[in-house]
Amino acid sequence: MSRVIQSDEFRDLCQRLQRQPAKDGTGDWPAQQLQWLGDAGGWRWNMPQSCGGLGCSSVEMLQIYRDLSACCLTTAFVLTQRNAACQRLLQAREGVVSTQLLQDLAAGRVMATVGISHLTTSRQYLANPAVLAEPVAGGWVLTGTVPWATGAASSQLLVTGATTESGLQLLAVVPLPQDAVSVGVPAELLGLSAACTSEVRLSGVYVLEGDVLQGPAERVLSGGSGSAPAAGSLSTSAVALGFAEGALAGFSQEAELRGELVPYVQRLRQESRELWEQLLRSANGVGELTAEQLRGRSNSLALRTAQAWLAATRGAGYQRIHPASRAVRESLFFLVWSCPQAVLEWQLQELTMD
Ligand SMILES: Cc1cc2nc3c(=O)[nH]c(=O)nc-3n(C[C@H](O)[C@H](O)[C@H](O)COP(=O)(O)OP(=O)(O)OC[C@H]3O[C@@H](n4cnc5c(N)ncnc54)[C@H](O)[C@@H]3O)c2cc1C
After folding, report:
1. Which atom of ligand 1 is nearest to the CA of 338?
2. Which of 61, 99, 143, 214 is an S-S bond match for 171, by CB 3.0 to 4.6 Å?
3. Nearest CA to ligand 1 atom 44
4. Atom of ligand 1 nearest to the CA of 113
């Protein structure tokens, strides 16, 4: 089991997040919750020891994502996007990313995020790339709109992607703020609005060759490791399973008052346990399910658990301020976030009872 989740600091963090999860409106950036995360060493977990990090393994990171998501999905989600950016910086070609920058990230002095979905899951049907990369002396010029970037307004670095005229992709790091970059107003969403996800417009952003992390190449994101929160990866399933655990905790509190609910809580708990074991087997390379199948099943559990909790709490739970109501809204996030085509199809089949 992870050293981190056994530590007093981590337990303390979870208790604080449980007592005071992030709010859920736009403009409610969870500064306090992220401060607690930093105080518990959260910026160091995924970073290598050589730059002041803790060097947690990918399995440890899965446990961390699960436990945090059970307490506060918004905080856990912001961390996954920051960690995805760090992972891409760590995987960059040698010499591109300085040790100083990695140390700043591990110490929480610099915040980073990713806006890369337009290379995999967003805007794939458009004839023209969402962000075009044109070669110029000494580097590239990026023009277009990054459709989704969580916490961009609070970040100093955006790891983003662009596509060349010939269809090759590159991954680059864009410092924020700068004149050629405009971070849009955070979108008002069904849930997780406080994560402040917005469009980012790039109006001829000059990227030095030395700031290109990877590419130009075909499908530049396909080489991501298992620990990076990449599209449909095990990390995204760990977040969904953790969220389901959080909803299950709410549902079981209800069952403490009403014994007739207990069998339903037990059934969901059993499913959650089995899926978590499957996920760990997959993380250790001996799983029977693909990452997409695991994600589909984890999504399904997250959605059904939140709805079971709502059904049990009846009309009272349907009031907007009730935590079951919030859980149902937040559970819908898993239907759209980081879902590759195979996961989307799995979900549509389940929803249409095929
Ligand atoms: C809360 C939240 C936070 C996120 N944060 C990040 C982040 O920090 N970084 C990041 O990289 N990504 C992020 N994402 C993006 C996410 O991972 C997915 O890429 C995104 O949800 C895909 O949705 P989309 O609307 O962009 O998809 P699209 O496929 O672009 O669909 C957009 C719309 O286009 C239309 N459409 C779709 N397909 C077709 C078609 N074939 N023909 C015609 N019309 C079509 C539909 O009407 C659809 O509603 C976030 C998403 C959410 C919801």
Report:
1. 17
2. 214
3. 125
4. 8
Instruction: Tell me, using a 6 A CB cutoff, whether residue 147 lines ligand 1.
Output: yes
What the block records as the tokens of 354 is 């095929």
pLDDT tens readout for residues 196-242: 999 999 999 999 998 999 999 999 988 654 455 566 699 999 999 99
Percent of the chain with pLDDT over 90: 90
Residue 1: the pLDDT is: 65
Report the chain's mean pLDDT, rounded to a whole number.
95
With a 6 A CB cut-off, is 149 part of the ligand 1 pocket?
yes
> Which of 106, 135, 163 finishes a domain?
106
Q: Does the Cβ of 148 fall within 6 Å of ligand 1?
A: yes
Distances (CA, A) of 333 to 240, 250, 299, 303: 9, 19, 9, 9
Mutation to probe ligand 1, out of 337, 341, 345 (largest number of atoms < 8 A from CB): 337
Domain count, the chain: 3
If asked whether residues 242 and 342 sit together in one domain, one would say yes
Of all protein residues, the one whose alpha carbon is nearest to atom 24 of ligand 1 is 122
Last residue of a domain, one of 172, 192, 217: 217
Best CA proximity match to 24, nearest among 37, 15, 33? 33
Segment holding 342, helix H or strand E? helix 341-351
pLDDT at 94: 85
Is 222 part of any domain? no
CATH at residue 240: 1.20.140.10
Query: What number of CA atoms fall less than 13 Å from residue 224's CA on the CB side?
Result: 25
Domain that holds residue 246: 234-349
pLDDT score for 346: 93
